[in-house]
Amino acid sequence: MIEDGFAKPYDRYFCSRLPDYQILSSQARLAGRGLFSRVNNF
Known about the structure:
Blueprint: H1 18-31
């Protein structure tokens, strides 16, 4: 879901995969996928 732009990584709690999720979210934002096609920030 993160890769498709329909979810965001939650960084309040530790997760060893958080950096991976943040990269996927950035790529989705830059490509304008999912919710990023409608809004700049969510």
